[in-house]
Model the fold of this input.
Amino acid sequence: MRIKHLLVCFLVTPLPVLLTSRPADAINLVYTNLFPSSPNYQPIANYKTNVGNDGILTRDFLTKIAPPNTRSKFWRALNSSYPVGWDFRRSGTPVYGDFLIDEYKVCPPFSDCASLSTTGSVGAKLNLAYRPNFTFSPNTRQPDPDSGRVRWIQWVRSNHPVNGRHGDKESIIDIDITSTGRFPYDPGTPFYYSKVESFNRQTPYRFDDAPARTDIGWNHDWIAELYLAEEITKPGSNTRKVLI
Done:
């Protein structure tokens, strides 16, 4: 019996351009120090399950896709998850700069990036950062991480919820549960916060995630879209406004 694991197939959507009439080339995907033999850039791994079956863990390429449509499944998931007190908007300004990919690899059982478990886990790890380019379009307002208003929003679909049963389909706005109880974690928001605890002010602005599942003897599918967002809520407003 051969068990094929397709746990982490990232389709990361980093807001390449925000006008449908413009080509999606404003944001660049830049692989920093990664190369095929690098431990930070491993696309596939073979392993044995705890009962001796063969497992294969693969990850997909990072891909830029079109900006989110307000009729898309992502938009419906976002608004259904946060129906009150939020005003999500599709920005009308292209974003220029780079998404710096520092780490993007599979995490087979008992590897350095696998979750701690007596049975092992299967997953992957992504570490990237947004670096704006203010000189490319000086007359265009760009999301500035040092303003403290830049955020990440991640939409995840999988066949195994973290707190559910294997085979149960999920479509969720993913939040970083490791930030719970730590500044600047803000409960009740859709944001996947950066790990650095500095009022979210940092350039470049980082994102990292290492999803994993411990039932390594089953097939897993995991796919995510990652969006750059900016909170533009006015002081005193009861509604939090977010540009995506």
User: Anything to note?
Assistant: The chain is about 5% helix and 35% strand. Confidence is low (pLDDT under 50) at residues 1-24. The longest strand covers residues 97-107.
